[in-house]
Amino acid sequence: MASLDDAKAEDATLIDLHGKTSIADAMVITTGRSSVHVASIADRVVKALKESGRSAPSVEGLVTGDWVLIDAGDVIVHVFRPEVRQFYNLEKMWGADRPTEHRAV
């Protein structure tokens, strides 16, 4: 979260995923003002993750800068341009209480 503040990311939201899915423990969703800003935010987050001793995260979407997904294992970071964030509205999908997921036996 500190690296997002340093990069001037806007409207950062942290969603606790415990009990909602097994893909990660938390999801961070934030916005950059332009494609260049989105890519810059993502670069800063990746650099901070590496400096903290974590292995290199998987990164998708860095070239276009509309939506960059950073998969750091237990935390997933989404960096969007404003209109792309509004279109996908991940906060609504993941922020609300979801019914318990059942696995087929």
Q: Give the beta-strand count.
A: 5
- Determine the fraction of residues in helical runs and give it as a percent range: 25-40%
In the predicted model, the low-confidence regions spanning at least 5 consecutive residues are 97-105
Provide the succession of SSEs. Answer: HEEHEEEHH
Kindly provide the radius of gyration, computed on alpha-carbon positions and rounded to a whole number of angstroms. 14 Å
CATH top level?
A: Alpha Beta
Distance between the termini: 39 Å
What does this structure look like?
The longest helix has 17 residues, at 35-51. The chain has one domain (2-91): 2-Layer Sandwich (Beta Polymerase, domain 2). It contains 4 helices and 5 strands, in the order H-E-E-H-E-E-E-H-H. It has helices spanning 2-6, 35-51, 82-88, 90-95; strands at residues 10-16, 26-31, 58-60, 67-71, 75-80. The relative contact order is 0.20. By secondary structure, the chain is of the alpha+beta class. Mean pLDDT is 88; it is low at 97-105. A 5-stranded mixed beta sheet has the order 1-2-5-4-3.
Summary keywords:
five-stranded mixed β-sheet, 26% strand, globular, 4 helices, 105 residues, alpha+beta
Summarize the structure in short.
33% of the residues lie in helices and 26% in strands. With 105 residues, it is an alpha+beta fold.
Helix-strand layout with pairing:
Layout: H1 2-6, E1 10-16, E2 26-31, H2 35-51, E3 58-60, E4 67-71, E5 75-80, H3 82-88, H4 90-95
Parallel strand pairs: 2-5
Antiparallel strand pairs: 1-2, 3-4, 4-5
